[in-house]
Amino acid sequence: MEANEAKEKIEALRAQAEEHARRYYDEDAPTISDFEYDRLLRELLDLENAFPQFITPDSPTRRVGGRPSDKFAPVRHEVPLESLTDVFSTEELLAFGERIAEALPGDRQFDVEPKIDGLSIAVEYRGGVFWRGATRGDGQTGEDVTENLRTIRSLPRKLDNAPERLIVRGEVFMAKDTFAALNREREIRGEPLLANPRNAAAGSLRQLDPAVAAERRLDLIVYNIQLASRDYASHAETLEDLKAMGFPKVIPYRLYGSVAECVERIAWIGEHRDEFEYEMDGAVIKLNSLAQRQALGSTAKAPRWAVAYKYPPEKKPSRVLDIVAQVGRTGVLTPKAVVEPIRLAGTTVSNATLHNQDFIDKLDIRVGDTVWVQKAGEIIPEVVEVDRARRPEGTEPYRLPAVCPECGSPVVRDPDGAAMRCTGAECPAQQLRAITHFASRDGMDIDGLGPAAVEGLVNAGLISTAADLYYLEAQSVAALERMGKKSAENLIAAIERSKSQGMARLLSAFGIRQVGAAAARTLARRFPNIGALEEASFFELTEIPDVGPVTAQYLADWFASPQSQHQLRLLREAGVSFDSREEIADTRFAGKTFVLTGTLARHTRDEAKALIERFGGKASGSVSKKTDYVVAGEAAGSKLTKAQSLGIPVLSEEEFEAMLE
Ligand SMILES: [Zn+2]
Q1: How many angstroms separate the alpha carbon of residue 400 from the centre of ligand 1?
Q2: Could you tell me if 164 and 221 are in contact, meaning their C-beta atoms sit under 8 angstroms apart?
Q3: For the ranges 46-55, 104-113, 150-159, 499-508, which has the lowest average pLDDT?
C-alpha cells in the first residue's frame, strides 16, 4: 500500500471508530458489536504500525494496546480528591441541612446524584486533549493510569470548546450487564469468576496491560470539575458544560430548594437502584452554588457542603425450601439456602448464601425456617436472621455433607478455619492444593506463598495453575487484600528465584503420585533434565532402584496428560529450569556427543538417546566435526558416510552396548 493510500485509509477508519463510539454512547444505539468494533480498531492499529508516520496521539487505537508502564507512576492531585461524610438516616441528612442553613442564611440549592460504587479517578485535559488520568489513591496522591483510561470509550480524548486547563473527577465502573457477560465468558473458559462489578473495575483499571483493561470494557461517569480555567457559578452549570464539551456520560442530577425536598428523590433512587446500569451504594447531596461551597470549605476529613446518603441494605423475609452445598473452585463447600422467590432491591432472589457450617450453627438455620434475606452491595444475597417464632414442627439442624457432592470424596474441616473442604484429587479442590504443594518446602520452596496467599491469588482470579505463578505482576498482587506493595514485590522476587531450583524440586513440586522429594532426587540423579526423563522408556524407569512399575506408570500418565504438557510449556516459556542440579550418578559420557544412524536392534532411537543422556552425554541429529561417536545400526546412510569422511569414530551397536555396560 502506498503511503498516501494508507493515510486515507487510516483517516477513514478513525472516522468510523469515532462514529461508532458516538453511536454507542450518545445515541445508545450501537450499529456494530463490540467484537466488530475491536476488529476495526485492530485494522487501524495494523495500518498505523505499518505507517508509523501517521500515528497521532489522539488516535482511537491509543485506547487499546497502548504501551503499559512497568509501574504506575505516582500523581500528586492538584486539587485533592476528598471523600464525603456518610449519613445513614433522614435525621442525619436533615441535620446536615440545618448546619448549612445556620452557616448560610438565604437562598440555597441542593443537588442529588446517585453515588456510583466504582473507582474514583481524576482526568486532566490540556488544550481540550486528554492528557493524564490518575486513581484517587489516598486523595492526595494517586496512580497514573493514563494508558488504561485510554481504553475506556466513554472517556473522550478530545473535547469541544474546553477550557485550556481542566481536571474532572469521575467514577470508573463496570456496567452490570458487562460484568454479567464477562463472568459468563469466564465460566465458559473455566476461569474463576469475578466477585462484583466494583472489584472487577478496580482490578481492570490497575491491570498493567492496557489490552486486558480494554477487554474488560470499563465505563466512566464524570461528576465534578476539580479545576478549570473557566468561571462557573454553580455545580449544575459545570455538569452542563461537561456535557457540552462532549463527555458522553455525566452524572444525572436534580436540583432542590432544601435538603428536606431532597428526601423524596433520594428514596426514589434507592428504590430504583437496580434499574441503573451501575452498582450504587448511596446518593450524594451537594450544595449547588460554588461560592457557597467556597464559603463553607472543608474539615480535615471532608467538605462541609456535601454528604453521601448510604442506603440500608434491603431485607425481606422468605422461607427456606432447601439447603444445598456448593463446591467452590478451591474445594470449599458453601451452603446455600434455596428460598421462596422474593423481590429484593429490584431483582428476584431465589437463593442466599449461608457462608459456612459455623454460620448455620450460630443462627441455627433449618430447612422450613422463615429467614430474613439481605442484599448488601454484593451480588450474592445472604440470610441474616431466623424468625424462630415461625419455625414449623419437625425441623432438624442442618449439617454439611460428609462427602463432596461433586466427586464423592471425604470432606474435611480446614485445621485453621471454618471452611469444609473436599479432599478429592479430581475435584476443584485439587487446584488449590496442587498450587500450595508446588510452592511448599517439598516443592519449589517459594517464600511467603503459603495456603492463604495461594487462596488469595486463586480467588482473585490471578492464578489457576502453578505455572501461572510465573506470570504474576507485582502490581496486581499488591492490589490484593492484606497484601502490601512490599510483600507483593517480595513474593514476586521469591517466585523469580524459584525458577532455578532445578529438576528435583520441580519434579517433586508437580505432586505426581509416588514421586515425592526423595524419588524426585533419585530421578534427577539419573536424568540430566525433565525432557530426558519424559523420553525415558518404561523399562528404563523400572530399572532404577526405588522406582517400580507403579511409579513408572504414574510418571508416564502424568507426562501423557495434556494439562501437564500445557503446564510444562508455560513453565519452560517462563524460564523455569528443567535441568538437574543433582550429581548425575554416572557421567561416563559427559561432554561426548553421539549421533545415531540406522536401525538399532536392542533400542529404539529415543531409548538410545535417553541412555546417552542418562550418562551425561548428548545425542545430536547431525554429524559434524564436534561429533565424538557415530553409532551405526542396520542400514545406516549418509551420516555414516559423513562420519567416515570426517574421521569420526564409528561404533557398531555391540560396541555401543559395551560402553553402556
Ligand atoms: Zn470434591
Answers
A1: 13
A2: no
A3: 46-55
Residue-by-residue DSSP string for 297-327: -B-SSSBTTEEEEEPPPEEEEEEEEEEEEEE
Distance 192 CA to ligand 1 centre (A): 17
Residue 333 one-letter amino acid: L
Q: At the top level of CATH, which class does the domain 315-424 belong to?
A: mainly beta
- 568 sits in which H/E element: helix 562-574
- Taking the centre of ligand 1 as the mean of its atom positions, its distance from the CA of residue 413, in whole angstroms, is 13
Residue 66 has pLDDT above 50, yes or no: no
Tell me the CA distances in angstroms from 179 to 175, 200, 269, 338, one per residue in order.
Answer: 6, 8, 21, 24
Residue 326 CA to ligand 1 centre (angstroms): 10
Instruction: Tell me the backbone φ, ψ of residue 589, rounded to 5 degrees.
Output: -100, 10
* Residues paired with 283 in a beta bridge: 114, 309
What is the predicted pLDDT for the residue at 65? 30
Question: Which 3-state string (H, E, C) describes 485-499?
Answer: HHHHHHHHHHHHHHC
What does the block give as the cell for 477? Answer: 498482587
* CATH superfamily assigned to domain 593-660: BRCT domain (3.40.50.10190)
Please give the average per-residue pLDDT across 154-159, as a whole number: 93
Superfamily of domain covering 74-310:
DNA ligase/mRNA capping enzyme (3.30.470.30)
Query: What is the domain partition of the chain in residue ranges?
Result: 3-63, 74-310, 315-424, 425-498, 503-574, 593-660
pTM of the model as a whole: 0.50
Residues tagged active-site? 115
Q: Which residues, by Cβ under 5 Å, contact ligand 1, an ion?
A: 404, 406-407, 409, 422, 424, 427
DSSP character at residue 156: -
Same topology between domain 3-63 and domain 315-424:
no
503-574 CATH, one of 3.60.15.10, 3.30.420.10, 1.10.150.20, 1.10.3720.10: 1.10.150.20
Average pLDDT of the residues in 617-645: 87
Task: Decide if 610 contacts 533 (C-beta within 8 A).
Answer: no
Sheet with 593-597: list strands edge to edge: 618-620, 593-597, 629-632, 650-652
Alpha carbon of 54 to ligand 1 centroid (Å): 57
Contact in structure between 385 and 356 (CB atoms under 8 Å): no
425-498 belongs to which homologous superfamily? Answer: 5' to 3' exonuclease, C-terminal subdomain (1.10.150.20)
User: Does CATH number 3.10.129.10 belong to domain 3-63?
Assistant: no
643 contacts 623 by C-beta, under 8 angstroms: yes
